[in-house]
Automatic annotation (TrEMBL):
Keywords: Transferase. This is Putative nucleotidyltransferase. SUPFAM superfamilies: Nucleotidyltransferase. It comes from Streptomonospora salina. One of its GO terms (molecular function) is transferase activity.
């Protein structure tokens, strides 16, 4: 992989691997593998994946989350979502090296569908590390850092901002504002990066690097994006920071992203 996250053929290289998992996180990854295999037995499980800082090798004990995707052979039912949530809660309680465990659950038909080819498909093929079962990436194309990926992964920020505004109005406690600031900041930085990704010609999931790269193209918004990256790592309950992200940087970014790459069509 080169410095721009690309393979030799110019396509986006898969960013994680099991041999990059830091030693401190090996026990929780092993436990996750065992619990998922046991909970979704009987041939229902197609595959499971890690994503985020743990398989990238940049996770910090006591700070980082454990993020996973479970792909079922059929569409998930409510009971499957509840099972995944229970596994995540159990891992969070049992392993202090993670700050939380989040598990997405989806069906293979949806993940491999044409409508998700440049959103969930890109996510699986480039950002997910196989943990169990057959790798769905074998059925997906090689991806280049294009405007299509930018649009399909992050072209719906305007709709998300509306939900965040409502959530901000309801966040009356410091803990609620901390959680909101982290969610908002992460998405803002990732959307900012995909805005400039095709022009830069590469891929990174590093939030600080994403913010720095964004600043080269939009220096007038660089300071705000650096604040967003810092908030993603160290959340804040400060209403002014949250307001800046949701009411100022966010709307500008949503409009600019749509102007450059187009709006994402509603999928599911």
């Amino acid at each position: 992989m080169d410095d721009r996250g690309l393979a030799a053929d110019g396509t986006v290289a898969r960013e994680g691997a099991l041999d990059r998992v830091p030693a401190a996180f090996t026990p929780v990854v092993d436990a996750a593998r065992a619990r998922i295999a046991a909970a979704f037995s009987g041939g229902r499980l197609h595959s499971a994946y890690l994503y985020g800082s743990v398989p990238r090798g940049s996770a910090i004990p006591g700070v980082s989350d454990l993020d996973m995707l479970i792909a079922l052979r059929d569409e998930p039912a409510d009971a499957d979502l509840a099972t995944a949530k229970a596994i995540g809660a159990e891992l969070d309680r049992g392993f202090p090296q993670i700050q939380g465990a989040g598990i997405l659950v989806d069906g293979t038909r949806a993940l491999l569908s044409e409508r998700e080819r440049y959103d969930d498909g890109f996510f699986v093929a480039c950002l997910c590390t196989p943990l169990l079962g057959e790798d769905l990436a074998r059925y997906l194309p090689r991806y280049r850092p294009t405007g299509r990926i930018a649009r399909d992964t992050n072209g719906d920020l305007a709709a998300v901002l509306m939900r965040w505004s409502a959530r901000a109005a309801e966040s009356t406690t410091a803990d609620a504002r901390l959680a909101l600031s982290r969610t908002v900041a992460r998405r803002i930085v990732r959307t900012g990066f995909t805005l400039i990704m095709p022009a830069w010609g590469g891929w990174t999931s590093d939030l600080y690097r994403s913010a720095a790269l964004f600043g080269h193209y939009y220096p007038e918004r660089s300071r705000q994006m650096r604040i967003a990256a810092a908030t993603a790592r160290t959340p804040t309950s400060d209403p002014e920071v949250i307001g800046m992200l949701i009411d100022d940087l966010g709307p500008w970014l949503a409009a600019e992203h749509t102007a450059v790459h187009g709006a994402k069509k509603p999928h599911r």
